[in-house]
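Form 7-S
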Amino acid sequence: MLKVLLISLISLGCQTRIEAKEKQEVVKFEKERTLVLSGTVAGNAVVLANQILTMAKVTTDEKVEKKPIYLIINSPGGNVYAGGIMMSSMKAAKLRGYKFICGVSFIAASMAFSILDACDVRYALDSSKLLFHSAAIGGVQRVNMFDALEIYNMLAKINGPLVERLLESTGMDKEIFAMAFYQEKLWDAIEFKEHCKNGYINIVTDYQGLDGINLY
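Output:
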């Protein structure tokens, strides 16, 4: 009995050390190849889109090393069109053989979360916040039944592909995903990781190599 108890305590201690090690992980970014998306997604995303295409040089020379493009995200979301332009440039860079390594400093919500989802490797600080939600229309004061039906159909066309993409990429349970998606749940990064498939997002305590860059 004592032997079994000792083995259990040792196993628990090992597991605790492994969990602590995972939580204390620090990731290094390459400063010269790091871009920052900070504040509301708007014209800044269009600027970043152009910078991404500049960094993702077109070449057929196999000797040229295609280094990853690093992106720090701290944004509550914003303009869908501006974010879409940035995601299009990311897609073009991927087709050229470049990968995106992205890290959340404080928050990645709404359109900013979609940009995070488009990355190849994702990190978040243990204090970060994450949020995704369904498409919505703001500023509507009064609509009749026919207008409401038209709005519903339009949003359904947007939400359908969005739900499929996020469910596949995150690997989240459908019921938990639906609750978060439609109720706009603000996730703590650690809790979010627990509900995603292994490897979707990694929790770290710091981003190294970015001295002099404002992460917030």
